[in-house]
Design brief:
The protein contains 16 helices and 16 strands. It is α/β, with parallel strands linked by helices. The protein folds into 2 domains: 130 residues, Urease, subunit C, domain 1; 293 residues, TIM Barrel (Alpha-Beta Barrel), CATH 3.20.20.140. The strands form 2 sheets. Strands 5, 6, 7, 8, 9, 10, 11, 12 and 13 form a 9-stranded parallel β-sheet that branches. α4 runs parallel beside α5 and α15 runs antiparallel to α16. The longest helix is centred in the first third of the chain and has 17 residues. It starts with a strand and ends with a strand. The model has no long low-confidence stretch (mean pLDDT 98). The structure holds guanine and zinc ion. The site of guanine (GUN) has 11 residues, from α2.
């Protein structure tokens, strides 16, 4: 057994949804997280744990919050270089900026360089688990898995499958794509903490044969995941209607090929009918809200309240590179603004839940990540809630007026914080980033 460590700070995590009960919110000012062999032993009052584990090495993070690392449930590692490209909506943006950038991932040196930079950027922002698109090139997923494996990180990714409506240099064939994906699954799925995600880009770029290939693969490996895009942009929705005229709506294209499952992540899911929401909920599929991307590309406003009412699971994604920030704090702040425009002032608890335990549960990974319950992997972050002057003044004011509490703390983070708030990031008990 390795040495036990006690991290002192202000432990914060959820045991279940805060929308069900306030008792599912755990916050303790003078507390500690006890970690051994990369796993959470327990979290609790620091005085008690210091007495219980007198030989543990103590790491002092008092004055900072210790919380589970973020789960970024939708982003494109191969778009790390192209955030903030001016002036177009989805389909033009893909053609003008995205496809040329992804072309470079044919080169393994480039895959290596960007994989490395991408993981560092996640850690700097407190993200410890990602569900990421690679490019169409199998080597892009292979190398990202390899780099994530080195950190013992929980990485979910897959090579994009696409065979139409894109430049030839970025298309596979259903046959070659299927062979490449099967080889990647054999090599990487459940190796270390890696998980394979079958990745048909979206209905526009997939022929029926491509979608059938994805269906066959998932039938053979039912514990893999599936990720795609759904109803992000009105022009895209219209295009899908012309490409799949026999499908009554966008979602039914994926349903027809068995791709709407309880392991399916649907990025954006903005322009939905009530029927689509109901079917997503029934399948227990996962909608990924990507608010900075949706604002940036002018895609629309995700309807969180309607999704909640329909019983859909919503989780959070940055959607780099249409998203404008790797920071989940920024993403939650942007989500709040989107929901305000919808007349639904989403609480800070709901926001943080959807980026931690809520996301872990939706992914069937809550035994591994998302909380500090005993036995979970010690993927956690140390958060300075006064990393900017605006936060400090706000803190002093709230203290002075006796209004300082965990909800205000969290709301301040989602309004103000960025990578400067992340003092340290730990993956499986190892420090991978420190400021
Ligand atoms: N739809 C299909 N591909 C993409 C992509 O790369 N980014 C976004 N935002 N939407 C997509
Ligand atoms: Zn995307």
């Amino acid at each position: 057994m390795n040495e036990m460590k006690l991290y002192l700070g202000e432990v914060f995590y959820f045991t279940d949804s805060p929308l069900l009960s306030a008792e599912n919110i755990v916050y303790e000012p003078d507390s500690a997280l006890c970690v051994c062999d990369g796993l959470v032993v327990e979290a609790g009052t620091s005085a008690i744990l210091l007495q219980k584990y007198p030989k543990a090495e103590v790491v002092d993070y008092q004055g900072s919050v210790l919380m589970p690392g973020f789960i970024d449930a939708h982003l494109h590692y191969v778009q790390t270089e192209i955030t903030g490209m001016y002036g177009r909506q989805l389909l033009d943006w893909l053609n003008q900026y995205t496809f040329p950038a992804e072309r470079a991932f044919a080169d393994t040196d480039h895959c290596r360089e960007i994989s490395h930079a991408f993981l560092k950027e996640l850690f700097r922002n407190g993200t410890t688990t990602a569900v990421a698109f690679s490019s169409v090139h199998p080597q892009s997923a292979d190398i990202l898995f390899e780099e994530a494996f080195r950190y013992n990180m929980c990485m979910l990714t897959g090579k994009v499958q696409m065979d139409q409506e894109a430049p030839e240099y970025l298309c596979d064939t259903p046959e070659q794509g299927e062979a490449d994906v099967r080889a990647l699954i054999q090599k990487w799925h459940r190796k270390g903490r890696n998980k394979y995600v079958i990745t048909p880009r979206f209905a526009v770029s997939c022929s029926p044969a491509e979608l059938e290939a994805c269906q066959r693969i998932h039938a053979d490996y039912p514990d893999t995941y599936i990720q795609t895009h759904l109803s992000e942009n009105k022009g895209e929705v219209d295009f899908v209607r012309t490409l799949y005229p026999d499908s009554p709506d966008y979602l039914s294209v994926y349903e027809k090929y068995g791709l709407l499952t309880d392991r399916t992540l649907l990025a954006h899911a903005i322009h939905l009918s009530d029927s689509e929401r109901k079917r997503i909920a029934k399948a227990q599929a996962i909608a990924v809200h990507c608010p900075t991307s949706n604002g940036f590309l002018g895609s629309g406003l995700y309807e969180m309240e309607k999704a909640n009412e329909a019983g859909m699971q919503t989780v959070m994604g940055t959607d780099i590179g249409a998203g404008t920030s790797f920071s989940i704090f920024h993403t939650l702040g942007a989500a709040y603004q989107v929901q305000q425009l919808n007349g639904y002032p989403m609480s800070a608890f709901e926001a943080f839940y959807k980026a931690t335990l809520g996301s872990a549960k939706a992914l069937h990974l809550d035994q591994e990540i998302g909380s500090f319950l005993p036995g979970r992997m010690a993927d956690f972050i140390v958060v300075d809630y006064n990393s900017t002057f605006a936060q400090l003044y706000r803190y002093e004011y709230l203290k002075r007026t006796q209004a300082w509490n965990i909800e205000n703390l969290l709301f301040g983070l989602m309004t103000h914080a960025d990578d400067r708030a992340v003092r340290a990031t730990y993956i499986a008990g190892q420090c991978v980033h420190e400021r």
